[in-house]
Amino acid sequence: MIREFVVYESKRRLLLLTFLALVMVTGSLFVLSISFEVQDNFSNQKAFKIINLFLGLFGATDIQHVVNSSLYFGIGILGTIIFGFAMLYSTKQLFSRRKLVIVNENGFYDFSSALAIRDFIKWESVEKIELVIINGQQLISVYLLEGDTFINTLPALKRIAMRGNLKFGFGQVTITVQTAINVTGEQLNHIMNSFFEGYKFRLQSSQ
């Protein structure tokens, strides 16, 4: 059995995500600019159609009855912050050959996203690992034995992200392979579980 498995980032996929983030930032800024001109009786039908389409990406539908400047301002600010952060992060990563995940016989590192834990997580802290598919995207969900204790040791932003994972029924750690090269979520799930099972076998053998 291999002693270590490393997942590297695909520059092509990262470039595509950077471009998509740029598009979303542009759309968010457009919505933000329109918010200063929008009145309850929206008269610019062409702009309305564009914004209505953009807001649909956030899950907003049938908004004609709730159109007001506050709605556009809120969506514009939120989109600019979220997608702006994503664009800056992905742009920075374009200039380095980054490791997304490192798995070995003792545990793993997760560097797969801006909110990744980045600390070494030992197998002794893990309860189970499973593959999760959301909107066609494969994720690795890792459930920890003492999740609450672990979450409390993290910075505030990462604590919020982890608790968000729990609310959706996922594990405390969520690994994405969206920008990974030569490995799928299903393959990484199999590899991580193989290392995890190897750890449990060694633990039982030593007792």
Could you give a quick summary of the protein structure above?
Helix content is 49%, strand content 18%. It has helices spanning 11-35, 45-56, 69-93, 147-151, 156-167, 185-206, and strands at residues 4-8, 99-104, 107-110, 121-122, 126-134, 137-144, 173-176.
Please explain how this structure is put together.
The protein has two domains: 11-93, no CATH class; 104-206, no CATH class. The chain is built from six helices and seven strands, in the order E-H-H-H-E-E-E-E-E-H-H-E-H. It has helices at 11-35, 45-56, 69-93, 147-151, 156-167, 185-206, and strands spanning 4-8, 99-104, 107-110, 121-122, 126-134, 137-144, 173-176. Strands 1-2-3-4 form a four-stranded antiparallel beta sheet, with helices on one face. Strands 5-6-7 form a three-stranded antiparallel beta sheet, covered by helices on one side. A hairpin with a 2-residue loop joins strand 2 and strand 3 (107-110). The model is unreliable at 39-43 and 61-67 (pLDDT under 50).
